[in-house]
Amino acid sequence: MAISLLPIPFISLRTKISFNLSPKIFSRRQSCSSSSDGSTGNRQVSLNSEKRPFAVATGDMFIGLASRLLKRSNQRTPPSDDGDRIGTVIEDEIDPAMIWEQRVKDVEAEKERRIITSPGFSFSAAGLLFPYHLGVAQLLIEKGYIKDTTPLAGASAGAVVCAVITSGSSMWEALEATKVLANDCRRNGTAFRLGAVLRESMEKLLPDDIHIRSNGRVRVAITQVFWKPRGLLVDQFDSKSDLINAVFTSSFIPGYLAPRPVTMFRNRVCVDGGLTLFMPPTAAAKTVRVCAFSASSFKLKGIGISPDCNPLNRATARQLLKWALEPAEDEVLEKLFELGYADAATWSEMNPVEDLVCDDTSAAQAIQAS
């Protein structure tokens, strides 16, 4: 099925697929962003605790079990060197109970970026809704919102798309790789083996110097398991394998990617980054957050681009959650790509690139130094 990216923001859904779209119509300007451009400062966005995806609820259970085991053993592996020490601890502005951390190496890697373009773009956890993010990224790259100097951040599937953008691979190529992954999971199963299939796909798609391209630019969100979960933002990578391990860890839904409750990353016990940093802040002074789920349905704040941008073309929350956890057919993956492209196009109409994108090196460095 050929993908048709229409120049207008709305895409016809007259296909064999039934999306059960909501008849309720929202104002595009109100639903597409909470501010004029949908950007925020370095703030954290949190899920409403009463409406959490199944994977998040399962993750909380595994985190609790892992924390009890860690507390009982009372053992923590010391950092391998001074660069692995935590260099920055920031309290979340929206949810003060949530904090995120950066190692000394990660802080230094960001300071080495000579030019930073604002706004940065942060991509949410999305599971197998990954093609939606690819469609958004395609529009943002085409229109000049995302440049080589644009900071990126992501959790889980959002971290994967950040790596793809930085790699220089086309979003079409990544979509085809997603189809191969989904077909493998449909034939052989998803639970407990998705991690191995994902790792193999990244090995094939990403170039050998992906870690060099990503250093100081891409923040990968990971959830550390201590006595309570803490978010860790990683954007300094030693090798291609190290970056893939970071993205794999960010995508590690407990008991889903592999038959174990937690995984290890740089001597830290970790799980999916989306459990604490659903849309992590970027290194830019302003961040536009991209969410593959309906911001209004999940009561998320500060979202710039989401299915709410085109409410008529929006699948139900139940359908999105199903596709996030189980691989959809190729035509659905293609439609998700188109919907992401359309939602980004709607957002761009209200936020012209010439009014929004600018060199923000000094402002970003001031934040890093504070």
Structure commentary:
The protein is globular. With 370 residues, the chain is α/β, with parallel strands linked by helices. The chain has 13 helices and 12 strands. The longest helix has 21 residues, at 330-350. Helix 4 (130-142) packs parallel to helix 5 (157-167), helix 6 (171-188) packs antiparallel against helix 7 and helix 7 (194-205) runs antiparallel to helix 9 (240-250). Strands 1, 2, 3, 5, 6, 7, 8, 9, 10 and 11 form a 10-stranded mixed beta sheet that branches. Strands 4-12 form a two-stranded antiparallel sheet. Residues 1-31, 43-56 and 65-80 have low confidence and may be disordered. The N and C termini lie far apart (51 Å). Strand 5, helix 4 and strand 6 form a beta-alpha-beta unit. It is an enzyme of class 3 (hydrolase). InterPro entries: Acyl_Trfase/lysoPLipase, PLPL, PNPLA_dom. Belongs to the patatin family. The active site is at 156 (nucleophile), 272 (proton acceptor). A motif (DGA/G) lies at residues 272-274.
Beta percentage is: 5-15%
> What is the strand tally?
12
Report the biggest beta sheet as strand number plus sense, adding barrel if it closes.
Answer: 10 strands, mixed
Q: What's the overall average pLDDT, rounded?
A: 76
Low-confidence stretches: 1-31, 43-56, 65-80
Write down the Rg.
Answer: 19 Å
Spatial gap, N to C terminus: 51 Å
Given the structure, what is the number of helices? Answer: 13
SSE pattern, N- to C-terminal: HEHEEHEEHEHHHHEEHEEEHHHEH
The shape is globular
Coarse structural class: alpha/beta
Helical coverage, percent range: 25-40%
GO biological process, one term: lipid catabolic process
Keywords: Hydrolase, Lipid degradation, Lipid metabolism
GO molecular function, one term: hydrolase activity
Domain PNPLA: 121-286
